[in-house]
Amino acid sequence: MLSRLNLLTRHFSRPFSPHRPTSPSFSTPSLASRPGPSAMTSAAHPKPIHTAACLIIGDEVLGGKTIDTNSPYLAKFCFSLGIELKRVEVIPDDEDDIIEAVRRMSSRYDFVVTSGGIGPTHDDITYSAIAKAFNLKLELHKPAFERMKRLSKPHPMQLNFDWETPSPGLTAKLRMVELPFDPMLPAESQAVFVADDLWVPIAIVNGNVHILPGVPRLFERLLLSLKPSLIPRLTDPEGKGTHRLMFSTPMPESAVAPYLTELAAKVEPRGIKVGSYPRWGKKRNTVTLVGADKAYMESLASEVEKNVQGKLVAKEDEMDPPSDSELVYSQ
User: Fold this and answer.
1) Which GO MF terms does the UniProt record name (predicted)?
2) CA distance 6 to 98
3) What is the mean pLDDT of residues 263-278?
4) 238 lies in a domain?
């Protein structure tokens, strides 16, 4: 029996299904083509993107069956763009939990990404739950369905699948192309295709909730392809992002704490954060400066090196011998 991950991977790269009674369907032809960089900003009131949140949806993650790699990927993605990821939550495939979490995140953060729960099976309820969260109906997204038929590959066990004949299989496939739809907003702002060779769209609800699949390779591909549409809305549209300077120090945290407290107060008005990270089992710990003003942080490098008796490094383990496994750190 194939794992759920393999099933979803196949479903997003092979044929999917049609007809179930729905309300009037998306029919904007332009959605069938790849949107330009302004696709995300065509809504009536686009907002600048300062903060982000990630909602991982899936019983399999909470049950330990699947390891979440999507939120770490999103964290690095946001860091590279200068977006502050403020929250990551993992919740079950439960309608009430999804509704509560997505409403709260949408109201508090500029860029919300959900992962998981948009496959063909009974427990894939993300689309319907998010629609209910914002009092919307699900509607058949015709361009997505047409792309599904054109781009997906037949499964070895469904070589004679008929896209035109109603069947349980077709109904299951249809679950993946029935999206939340707000009749008060432009259709092109609610679902976008960001990769020419993928049929799955990114559904966008309430202007800032972006619904992505949980399959890591698809999640990463779609998110990366979405980047050109996000850049015009960033605080730093040139995409310089956030920077991190790392200092390797032989001193325990308790010894550097007083200086780091003073440093944090000094750099806070410049939007710089100071971090301290013990490295258990290693001889050296790590101190970091994180912020958008790279030049200012670099100007502090000599001062930090002196006060933590350390060195600016490119990699955290740069100054640890490969064989170093002795626990020598103490607080």
Assistant:
1) FAD diphosphatase activity
2) 24
3) 95
4) no
**Residue 98, amino acid:** I
Say whether both 68 and 217 belong to one domain: yes
User: 24 lies in a domain?
Assistant: yes
The Cα-based distances of 303 to 12, 31, 65, 167, 260 in angstroms read 52, 54, 47, 70, 11
Q: Are residues 211 and 177 in the same domain?
A: yes
284-330 pLDDT, tens digit per residue, is 999 999 998 999 999 999 999 999 999 999 988 888 766 544 444 44
Rounded Cα–Cα distance for residues 208 and 238 (Å): 21
Nearest 10 degrees: CA dihedral of 198, 118, 178, 162? 70
Give dist(CA 189, CA 114) in Å, integer.
Answer: 17
**Which pLDDT score is estimated for 249?**
96
**Can you tell me the distance from the alpha carbon of 31 to that of 118, in angstroms, rounded to the nearest whole number?**
19
Residues 50 and 117 in one domain: yes
224 lies in the same domain as 295:
no
